[in-house]
Design goal:
434 Repressor (Amino-terminal Domain); Four Helix Bundle (Hemerythrin (Met), subunit A); alpha/beta; single chain; 56% helix; 8-stranded mixed beta sheet; 440 residues; Rossmann fold
């Protein structure tokens, strides 16, 4: 989402760091370029104006200009101001032990139904017992989508396709909440425009019945400043308590996400980073600022890895590496766990210095090809790749939809990796992660 902005800011900072000393004219020129970069990223004009003024007032100070590393000092100032711009500290929804009610509102197509399922999954991991409620009777198949997602997660969902009065459905869902002992009820409402007075009145009626502790506006990051305008209007009528920004993995400019807190006063609480249920997290302004400035977000990466990786498998793998007994079966298991972390591009952006490296090809399809080749092998072949002769290679390539050359390349790279690990272990070095490239 922020690739373009991140690339431009990193270039500006590289130029600043190239100066042995900084003058007011150097800083003024850098501020002009930062201003243009933010405006091109679709950040609100007034927000940009205030942001640049705040950075400039601190950057031209004597402590910065006389500093040994003035360029780095300016980067820190920009980082801190970006954090302040996006809200300062994370503001997740604070829940009670029971009887929590969360209402999702927003425009059509913003991703409310998927966000409802993601929130249910998120809070279940936190120890809550969620109930999903389908109140979108306007969009065809909306309830079917919610039921499908709920079934995948094994989370109960309350709905009534025959009833068109959403207020009545909401009343009955509160009874169901007590019956199934749900600790949090997540209400998925229909998308609507703020200019549709009838539908906005319906939301106001729902609010009276549900009495939600939190009303989350689900904003599509791809809609730009229109999302900010909609949040303002919904906030005036409903007193929105927070925002969940979806599709941050898209290729839009992303400036609206930087403008939300400053222009509406509503904090961003959650972000959706992909289509998978797991591609969802609390919004951390400091971590997002670091990613925008090309500093990575290693904390989020480690937290995600801790959630997705099997600790017992990792210990077993380490023992196998020490004994040089690693097989393609082991690599397949590691590959599956890596894929759980999300798109490779997102993972790379979390690693400091990797997000803005040019010429670095990150292709999720290559991982899928590797997985297809290994899965086309028998278990015996995965454990003993040396058994794979020409006839077996033909069968594997046909089964995986790849060429014999690609199968050969995979096997060759795997054997080279094993030799390298054996050599490193003999030199008593630290054991590396085996998520290296086997496909070129």
């Amino acid at each position: 989402m922020f690739d373009s902005l991140s690339g431009k800011l990193c270039k500006i900072f590289r130029n600043l760091k190239g100066y042995g000393r900084l003058s007011e004219s150097n800083i003024k020129e850098a501020m002009r370029e930062i201003k243009l970069a933010l405006l091109e990223a679709d950040v609100n004009y007034r927000v940009v104006k205030d942001f640049v003024a705040a950075v400039k007032s601190k950057a031209v100070g004597k402590d910065v200009i006389d500093s040994i590393t003035p360029g780095q000092q300016v980067v820190k100032i920009v980082h801190d101001e970006l954090v302040n711009l996006m809200g300062g500290t994370p503001e997740p929804v604070e829940l009670k032990k029971y009887n929590n009610r969360l209402m999702l509102v927003g425009l059509q197509g913003s991703g409310k139904t998927t966000t409802a399922a993601k929130l249910a999954s998120y809070y279940r991991k936190k120890g809550h017992n969620p109930l999903l409620v389908g109140l979108d009777v306007q969009r065809p198949a909306a309830i079917d989508q919610l039921v499908f997602l709920a079934k995948q997660l094994d989370i109960p969902v309350f709905y009534d396709k025959k009833e068109k009065n959403v207020v009545d459905i909401a009343k009955r869902s509160l009874i169901e909440m007590q019956r199934c002992k749900a600790t949090i009820c997540i209400f998925d409402t229909a998308g609507r425009l703020h200019i549709d007075q009838q539908l906005m009145d319906e939301l106001a009626d729902l609010k009276q019945v549900i009495c939600p502790q939190d009303i989350l506006f689900v904003a599509d990051a791809m809609t730009g400043q229109d999302a900010v305008t909609s949040i303002k209007e919904f906030n005036e009528k409903l007193s929105v308590t927070g925002v969940a920004v979806t599709k941050l993995d898209g290729d839009a400019r992303g400036g609206a996400a930087l403008s939300i807190k400053a222009t509406t006063g509503c904090p961003i609480r959650f972000v959706g980073l992909g289509e998978k249920i797991s591609d969802f997290d609390v919004f951390y302004p400091d971590r997002m600022a670091s990613r925008i400035l090309g500093m990575g977000d290693i904390v989020s990466l480690v937290e995600k890895a801790q959630e997705e990786f099997d600790e017992k498998q990792a210990v077993d793998l380490q023992k196998k590496i020490k004994r040089n007994e690693i097989s393609l079966e082991d690599f397949l298991q590691q590959l599956k766990q890596i894929k759980k972390l999300g798109p490779l591009e997102n993972i790379m952006s979390m690693i400091p210095g990797m997000g803005n490296m040019k010429g670095l090809a990150v292709n999720d399809k290559q991982l899928s090809h590797i997985e297809a080749v290994i899965q086309s092998m028998t278990r015996k072949e995965r454990l003993k790749p040396q058994l794979i002769d020409l006839s077996r290679k033909k069968r594997i390539s046909a089964g995986s939809g790849t060429s014999i050359q690609e199968v050969n390349q995979l096997l060759k790279n795997f054997m080279m990796m094993k030799k390298m690990m054996k050599k490193m272990m003999s030199q008593k070095h630290k054991i590396p992660n085996i998520g290296g490239k086997l496909w070129r």
